Amino acid sequence: MPSRIKEFPNRFAELPASDKVGLLRTMVRIRAFETRAEMLFMNKKIPGFVHLYIGEEAIATGVMANLRKDDWITSTHRGHGHVLAKGADTKRMMAELFGKKTGFCKGKGGSMHIADFSVGMLGANGVVGGGYNIAVGAGMSAQIKKTDQVAVCFFGDGASNRGTFHEALNLASIWKLPVLFVNENNRYASTTPTGYHLSSARVADRAKGYGIEGYTVDGNNVVEVYDAATTLIENARKGKGPAILECLTYRIKGHYVGDPEKYRTREEVQAQQRENDPIERYFAFLAGKKAADEATLSALRAEAEREIDEAVAFAESSPLPDPEDALDDLFSFSPSEFPEAVR
Amino acid sequence: MRTITFSDATLEAMKEEMRRDPTVFVYGEDIVRQGGIFGQFKGLPEEFGDRIRDVPISETAIIGAALGAALTGTRPVADMHFADFISVAYDELVNQIAKNRYMFGGQANIPLVVRAPDGIINQAAAQHSQSVEGWLMNVPGLILVAPSSPATAKGLLKSSIRQNDPVIFFEHKVLYPQKGPVPEGEYLTPLGKAEIRRPGTDVTVVTYSLMVQKCEEAAKALEAKGISVEIVDLLTLKPMDTATILDSVRKTHRCVVVHEGVVNGGLGAEIAARVQAEAFYHLDAPVLRVGAKDVPIPFSPPLEKYVAANLSDIERAVLRVLHREA
Fold first, then answer.
1. Last residue in a domain, options B154, B181, B208
2. Same domain, yes or no, for B148 and B239?
């Protein structure tokens, strides 16, 4: 396992027991949602593309546990975990994946464009590296309005090679914006491994160029992610400016559901599943401290399955959008007020 | 009525809106230390402190961050320095800003303005002279505005800042130092409404931005030949006030579209298509277009002059739709 470069204060220890189990619950919910989404996609219940977060649950969970509802996040095309961990409703999320009228985006976004602004989730993004500047803009808002809100930008290892990374990080740094850039380094940019596409050993190394702090943690250890995020988010909230938190993880599933995965071996994936599953690791940690047992875990799994069952039932029973709904929501005014606008 | 420059008219609009709403802020390259290339930001730092900011040369951040700011409760005005540089942040504009509200099912308003100084001036050559509205006409979700005078600049900028949707505000660089009558005090010029700049009966000339005054000059010259030209000043390019264009064409039966940008694939093509589709039987001649030739704007004065549309191009087109020789 990779070792962390910096020891962060052990803030996890301060959490009440229920919150420690809560982290496990969030990871189990994400896993259950993703496992079901995969099945539903293969059964052709979900159209389009689906990019699964399986194996990366500890990152969204550990980071989001430090955010308030009025803090913001920007997400990626692999965004389901972020949406769930930020507190979005599973039913409306599943309905969106189904392309239903009751979905968060009324069926206009789907898996790759899912958002719940009511909980500060500013959107998944179909453009790799599309979230940086949105998060920077949210940080600007907090500064202009003099609030203590924070924005967290999730991005992948592949996205760290976008030009937007440079412009966003530089601007966030010189203005000391309250933004935490959380890198989910899952070792593959689609099919291309980090060993090939990264010029630096670590994504966090790039922080030096912007005069900000950058740290690498074991992204499959929710405790490490939590501790690092607590400190860095508090710093951002206090006006100390942005940082990069690189979380080393592994994408258990293909880039998308249906990916033939010719760029890696089965053995590599199986070893990760066996030895580095964030849920198993955290459960073992809690069990070792007698903070959870098998009964806790199976109860959480049953609870998550029930939640997903209800979400699927809601999605299935929801109506599809009416075709002409396609002309709504482009502008703040309605097409009937100004037909020219959607001519 | 008092006369002030176009530049000062936009400055008044900024001041009034920033006083009215503390969530309005503005940022761009060289706007604090320099006051803007055309002085259009002078005095704002003294009054508004950090609500006006210089930014690094980072166009994707300038335009991209406007979205994040707009989604989270402020009303950013992002200055693009030169409209040409919109291309640097094209993804931010067309894939993020233009689509955000729609893609997410109308969850959030996007009150942002991108100020985009455009057009040919002082042999600025290929990368500082463009009219780029054609690039954006094909993108659903953006409001495109192009004032033609100090009065319309002030009223439209104020309306744009108050609009809950993304507005690209094209300001022709030649217009900045020009003076014109501007009413005292607060007023708004509505988005989506064209204005008849000059009434006439023989030919409708549809135009916008700096070309409005070129068309007015041409109209005066043509008046001497007994030709009455009606000038429709679009002001908002998208969504376009098609009804005003059609009403005029149904009256004059002839139509010429004039813009500074290249003719090929430009706004004129869209206008001509709408006119022929909806007023075909009112037309006594094909709709003609006047604009730049299909090359980049060259540097050397004779080359630049040759590529850009000029007065005689406008006059010739008007005479042609009247089936008269120049």
1. B181
2. no
Inter-chain residue contact A74 with B60, CB threshold 8 Å: no
> Residue B289's closest CA among B274, B269, B305?
B269
Chains A, B: CB pairs < 8 Å: 165
Interface residue of B21, B29, B50, B60 to substitute, partner A, most A CBs within 10 Å: B60
**Which residue in B71, B105, B242 is closest to A122 by CB distance?**
B71
Q: Which residues of B touch A146 (CB under 8 A)?
A: none
Range of the domain at B170: 3-181
Same domain, B140 and B217: no
Do B39 and B151 share a domain, yes or no?
Answer: yes
B167 and B200 assigned to the same domain = no
The residue behind tokens 């233009």 is B98
**SS3 category, A197:** helix
Q: Which CATH architecture has domain A11-318?
A: 3-Layer(aba) Sandwich (3.40)
Beta carbons of A340 and B239 less than 8 Å apart: yes
In tens digits, chain A (343 residues) has pLDDT values of: 343 467 899 999 999 999 999 999 999 999 999 999 999 999 999 999 999 999 999 999 999 999 999 999 999 999 999 999 999 999 999 999 999 999 999 999 999 999 999 999 999 999 999 999 999 999 999 999 999 999 999 999 999 999 999 999 999 999 999 999 999 999 999 999 999 999 999 999 999 999 999 999 999 999 999 999 999 999 999 999 999 999 999 999 999 999 999 999 999 999 999 999 999 999 999 999 999 999 999 999 999 999 999 999 999 999 999 999 999 999 999 877 787 777 7
